[in-house]
Amino acid sequence: MEQDPNTGDVTVTPKKLDGSTYPPGTKVEIPGKNGNTITVTIGEDGKGTVPNSDLPDGEVPGTGKITEPGKPTVEVNVKTPKKLYPNAPQTEQPDKIEITRKPNGDAVVTPKKPDGSTYPPGTKVVIPGDNNTPIEVTIGDNGSGEVPNDKLPKGDLPGKGTVTEPNKRPSQPVDVTTPARKTPTVELEQDPNTGDVTVTPKKPDGSTYPPGTKVEIPGKNGNTITVIIGEDGKGTVPNSDLPDGEVPGTGKITEPGKPTVEVNVKTPKKLDPNAPQTEQPGKIEITRKPNGDAVVTPKKPDGSTYPPGTKVVIPGDNNTPIEVTIGDNGSGEVPNDKLPKGDLPGKGTVTEPNKRPSQPVDVTTPARKTPTVELEQDPNTGDVTVTPKKPDGSTYPPGTKVEIPGKNGNTITVTIGEDGKGTVPNSDLPDGEVPGTGKITEPGKPTVEVNVKTPKKLDPNAPQTEQPDKIEITRKPNGDAVVTPKKPDGSTYPPGTKVVIPGDNNTPIEVTIGDNGSGEVPNERLPKGDLPGKGTVTEPNKRPSQPVDVTTPARKTPTVELEQDPSTGDVTVTPKKPDGSTYPPGTKVEIPGKNGNTITVIIGEDGKGTVPNSDLPDGEVPGIGKITEPGKPTVEVPVITPAKVTSGKVTPETPRIEQVETGNNTGKTEKLEIKKEN
Questions:
Q1: Each residue's pLDDT tens digit, 640-672
Q2: Is the pTM of the predicted complex or chain greater than 0.70?
Q3: Phi–psi pair at 542, nearest 5 degrees
Q4: Do 618 and 634 form a contact (C-beta atoms < 8 A)?
Q5: Residue 426 three-state SS
Q6: 576 by DSSP, 3-state: which?
Q7: Buried b / exposed e along 193-211 (16+ C-beta atoms within 10 A)
């Protein structure tokens, strides 16, 4: 049901399971005012209309009915929108509806106006929800509202979102994707020496379940293995109870007094404790092919590879590890479409033929590469060239259909020609930029969704902005980027000028220039890596400039400094923000430890924490560290945990004093102290 924000009339479109529409004469019934039903008869275009005057005074959720001529009635969940008052002012269309996550999975919804400002308290935001039931969020004093994790859909759900300020009509819709609810997990860690499996069920925020929780995992011959969780949040399955081969399937977590939750698991196979153990790898290298496929190469500590037939297990989506078989070249491959949606850190193991698995090491499975839709607007005519590209940069075949968001919530459809491109005339473009979700449908293949921002219609009679000589980008200590476009004579552009530079996920970053000739991009909005591309400058009431080359710098990330006392071996842990400042007391830092375990440190008043020498691994362990500031999402950083000092005291090497040449081949010499770094 799509409501026109100007008239209030509602367009009703019943759809079959395959997305096709119903035939003319189909009758649709939806709940109306005072317990009555509104009946709509579907026309030749597969749609029907409910006049605004027939709508209830408030939203009415309930059961709708679809009756196709000559077929049984089908019931569906619906929510009939409320009557609008056409004379009320309309809410400004948001530039985007931002959705971030809290550690426990709750979604924080923040609609942003085109100038980046937020909407007032009491504003209602509607985003897609499961079972055709939209989710309504009320905005608070901080410009955001929250959706509990268990109210989110089972999977990512793209669709349209609207914003309605108090005493105003709804905004025009924008594309938004409601994220999937975070689910619990069951971690299964197998001891490579005994084969026993430690079972650790975890809640969406990573916390453990209470004692008495029951976990069921698939076992041999279709039976179930049941484990009762103890005081430490863990349970154990003896090696003798494991199946003879791995068994993927559904696990169940039953917390006392709460409903059972199902999760994906893969029960490991029974080990032969007498078989030799696979040597722990120095690292598991993962590189990428142009088409996005991942090449996995486990390396022994001496740099050599493992033999053919070796199995490597790395993290995968939905708590389902990815298994890779190593070939004659020492590597194995994972197809791009089997990789996770986002970078996924975790543990990896290596198992040589006829041996037990290695001790685990830290590894991050890279995110799958996605296609892109390049939109290039001619600054003279305003026409937009649409070029969909596959993950390897190649173009799509003729007949491919591309859909991008258009004006008034409608879609612009483009058919790709022999040159891999299509065109949208300037006259078909929206009056303002429309960010959202684009779709690529290659003939005979499933539709793929990508992020796009449809440019706005140009006035061909407006003067063109002068092409910049360069777009300078400098950094502030906290990582924020300062963007300053410069004209060929070195002067700056006037306030209100818009600068567009490359951004992650094919979503350009727009910067508004202020009185000082510059604009800023917050550090967290910058791409993960340096991103070269094209930038344009648009002065107020002018057409965009011709593009120039520019590289958007990578966001700065926090660090974890590990300083080891050479006398005691104890390690001081100091997490630092991108600007070098320390984190507040209570911040939790996790670094890789011995035997694949994690060392957890709580930061004190001085911004530091300590790891006793006795808790350190026997050798250095490179991997992923985690910083969790109270009330904020966890941040991951690379770290190398130092080895335990075994002698009880480290005696620094006596410095060497040598006469060496200094300067640029001048012949001048000087005595310098040469120290060997530990």
A1: 899 898 864 444 444 444 444 344 344 444 444
A2: no
A3: -130, 165
A4: no
A5: helix
A6: strand
A7: eebbbebbbbbbeeeebee
